[in-house]
Design a protein that fits this description.
five-stranded mixed beta sheet; Rossmann fold; alpha/beta; 542 residues; 27 strands; GMP Synthetase, Chain A, domain 3
Length: 542
């Protein structure tokens, strides 16, 4: 077992204490003076009420006191007009905006559970998630009036954002300051947000994150990244994911920094905003960073950008170096985590491009710990790949469904991540593959990340690549690859094999290579290996 705290200075570890979770698991945790997420807003509005916090998609500015007033107004209306209270499960089908920030904190003040829903999904999928989450009500943007408005067939208590923003309601302004029950000390371990995720086994899961786990995640980001009130960022990542909601919005709120909100992601706009506004840090997925690289010529001065944070999927080391060549003053910090870890589990302690461990996912944050085990849950030695088990203050201790819990946790409370990886003596965690993605070629195990790294490194002009296992009558599986090339590059399958042959074992080399303009993505913008496997298999078997 590796405890994150053993790799940090006494300045950080002296702030830790032992905390017994409601599940009985004892974890290391930061001593924090806040009990709820709303407390972060309360504190910021008291310390810096007139400081500009949010600049929305249209350029409108909002201070911390503006956000508190809006959150308090929403909380009052929701409590008095719609009977939203502690434990209420409330869906948020709202685009990136000042309003979703205020609503999330309003629900937290009431002790309700916010359920962010992906605005990019089709009606049928949203309806499935609404039913699956067992919502008490849903708050939606005007785009979805046909789905949940007065003429819809929905039986759900539906609240349009426009109606909430209408100050001429029957209750009027006098309710804005009406005292509402708010007992933050009783909400410390209460559920604050629910996310629906395919999770570690592919089955649909409800992930409930508490005030405690989210606050520990935010504190860890602040301590390790050194984010301060002098920093600024842009959130172009959807705020219905933990990255946008926790790693960007709540972190920025906690340190009282400045945040620009983009309603939709536009890579060129993001780059130009970073330059124009002199932004200092940016958090996104590998896909986003690869998109940003396409617009290097659109900007000339990113000198104020000092930190790049990347999570949600594997980032090829050659792309990290490419970013470092472009913005050498911006340290690229890899983050490994998932919804179940409230965003961060481990963070690269220094600039990845300058580290001999560039391919690692960093060191577990001080409040977390990791084990690498075999299929019998027996601990493995350093530098030996096995199943990655997670536990700590940011890690969930159960799912909503009892059967899923049985499959996802060990008897002593460790979460099975579904990843294969190893830890070295210095505490660095290396994720080598998803367990479900490992290719079994004639009895030889192929780690797809390793082959993807080789393709990025030895094949010039590769933008994105995915390696998957393809069914084969002789070998069981062979290695297949889908490659997206930059404009001006062209290869044949034979040439790819030729270029890789000196660097990979024969069983690792893709025997089926296909080329596309861009790789298919899942709903949360990750490379869709399930679909890619089908695309290559259909072509291979035809």
């Amino acid at each position: 077992m590796i405890q994150g705290k053993q790799f940090y200075s006494s300045t950080i570890t002296s702030r830790l204490q032992k905390v017994r979770m409601p599940s009985g698991v004892v974890v290391n945790a930061f001593k924090i003076g806040h009990s709820t997420l709303y407390d972060l807003l309360d504190s910021a509005s008291e310390v810096a009420p007139e400081k500009v916090f949010i600049i929305d998609d249209n350029g409108k500015q909002y201070t911390f006191s503006d956000l508190k007033l809006e959150a308090d107004t929403f909380a009052s209306k929701l409590a008095n007009e719609y009977e939203v209270a502690r434990g209420s499960v409330v869906g948020l089908l709202i685009f990136n905006s000042f309003e979703i920030c205020a609503l999330f904190l309003a629900l937290n003040k009431l002790g309700a559970i916010a359920v962010p829903l992906a605005t990019k999904l089709r009606h049928e999928k949203i309806q499935y998630l609404v039913d699956y989450a067992e919502l008490d009500c849903i708050i939606y943007s005007d785009k979805y009036d046909d789905w949940f408005g007065g003429d819809s067939d929905s039986q759900l208590e539906s609240i349009s954002l426009n109606s909430l923003k209408d100050t001429e309601s029957s209750l009027g302004q006098h309710l804005i300051h009406k005292t509402l029950p708010y007992e933050p000390e009783t909400l410390r371990f209460a559920d604050a947000a629910m996310f629906m995720t395919s999770g570690t086994t592919g089955a649909s899961k409800k992930v409930l994150l508490t005030n405690f786990s989210i606050l520990q995640a935010v504190e860890s980001y602040e301590v390790i990244l050194g984010t301060t009130e002098n920093d600024s960022t842009v959130v172009a990542t959807p705020m219905y994911y933990v990255t946008g909601l926790i790693a960007i919005f709540l972190l920025t709120l906690k340190v009282r920094a400045k945040m620009y909100i983009h309603k939709f992601f536009d890579s060129e706009r993001v780059v130009k905003t970073i330059e124009k506004e002199g932004l200092t840090f940016f958090h996104a997925s590998p896909t986003v960073f690869i998109k940003l690289l396409e617009h290097r010529s659109a900007v000339s001065d990113l000198s104020k950008l000092h930190t790049l944070i990347c999570g949600s999927a594997h980032m090829p080391s050659d792309k990290i170096r490419e970013l470092n060549d472009w913005i050498p003053n911006a340290a690229f910090r890899t983050v490994y985590g998932m919804t179940e870890t409230s965003s961060p589990f481990s963070i690269m302690p220094t600039a990845a491009a300058l580290s001999k461990f560039i391919e690692s996912s960093g060191i577990p944050i001080p409040v977390n710990e990791v084990r690498i085990v075999n299929d019998d849950d027996e601990d493995l030695a350093f530098n030996t790949a096995g199943n990655v088990l997670l536990r700590g203050a940011t890690v969930i201790t159960s799912y909503f469904d009892a059967q899923i819990n049985k499959d996802s946790f060990t008897t002593d409370g460790w979460l099975r991540s579904g990843d294969i990886g190893y830890v070295n003596e210095e505490g660095y965690l290396f994720i080598v593959d998803r367990k479900k993605d490992i290719v079994n070629c004639g009895g030889e195990k192929v780690w797809t990340y390793e082959v993807e790294e080789a393709i990025h490194h030895y094949i010039e002009g590769v933008d994105e690549v995915a390696v998957v296992g393809v069914p084969d009558e002789v070998y069981g599986e062979i290695v297949g690859s889908l490659i997206a090339l930059r404009h001006g590059y062209e290869y044949s399958q034979e040439k790819i094999i030729e270029l890789l042959s000196p660097h990979l074992a024969k069983f690792q080399i893709p025997r089926k290579v296909m080329f596309v303009d861009s790789l298919p993505k899942t709903e949360n913008s990750k490379i869709d290996k399930k679909l890619i496997k089908k695309i290559i298999a259909d072509d291979y078997c035809s």
